[in-house]
Amino acid sequence: MIIVMKPNSPAAEIERVTAEVQNYKITPEVCVSQHKTIIALVGDTAEIDITRIQNISHCIEQVLRVKKPFKRASLEFRHGDYSEVVVPTPNGLVTFGRNHPLIVVAGPCSVENEEMIIETAHIVKATGSQFLRGGAYKPRTSPYAFQGHGESALKLLAKAKEATGLGIITEVMDAEEIEKIGEVADVLQIGARNMQNFSLLKKVGAYGKPVLLKRGLSATIEDWLMSAEYILAAGNPNVILCERGIRTFDKQYTRNTLDISAIPVLRTLTHLPIMIDPSHATGFSEFVPTMAMAAIASGTDSLMIEVHPNPAKALSDGPQSLTIEAFEQLMLELAPLGKFFGRWAKNDNATVMPKFAAKVATLASH
Ligand code: PEP
Ligand code: MN
Fold it and tell me: Exposure winner among 122, 144, 200, 208, fewest CB in 10 A?
């Protein structure tokens, strides 16, 4: 249930309503967004009479029941206000959200060595992207496949961060590693295979750093939002949802099927920001640019793209990784599209890579 307060309600009145509803043995949460203040009542509200709540104060505009099983994640919970996930990085605050420029996260599947991660980080930065990704702990189907370099890879991510000021996103597979990873990562990634690892979700929720929650391989949208609910319920409001392709029947020509319809569907269901990962979704680098463009056209808030200086030699996910050149080219091609949809940062590549910016300008003028 949510209580929507009238605009400009006095703080004292909001406090009074908050205190009164505690008589119903429910802990209210006050959520102040740009346009309104909402008092959320989560718990057993079925028996609560809406009119009695409405009568608490003349400053209450509306009292509504949240019908969806995912309460905090639902758009109703914020009365239609899309949330922002603001991530502090050395280069400044980066905001993921419906009403913000597109955020690009790029980097190799795995952190392999110092040279490759630093080189990739510089390119990622030069293209105007905001985050470097790279796995230190890798979820692999085979126990015999490369499992990631672990702690030493975290140190390399820290170096890349220091060299470029980029934010870092890397996966957490085990709750015991949260602290260690959290020292370097600005956003903790929960991979597709752990989307329903509920104890891990509770722990990353309690830890407090922003979480990137990938959609499980065969998860319905509701399963996915219920998983987000675990993180939100643990007290962490900073969740980004990442669609990375779901299992369908073709394994030969695509690795997964990118559910691009998840974008408009999620927009009707949740206030949380959305990311699309065309790399894991398609499994082949040649299809990544088309799907990245489709994602922008469909309104994604961010993109995650795997990039590797030498995909043929990559220790994981080489076939889907763009070369440095292909990634630079893709960013050039995305710029006019991002601008067309009003989702491209004003301070894009211009300040960091003059040649690159000139090319963007030429493309944009056609
Ligand atoms: C990854 O991002 O490298 C990864 C393993 O992703 P997913 O969990 O989507 O397979
Ligand atoms: Mn990968």
Answer: 144
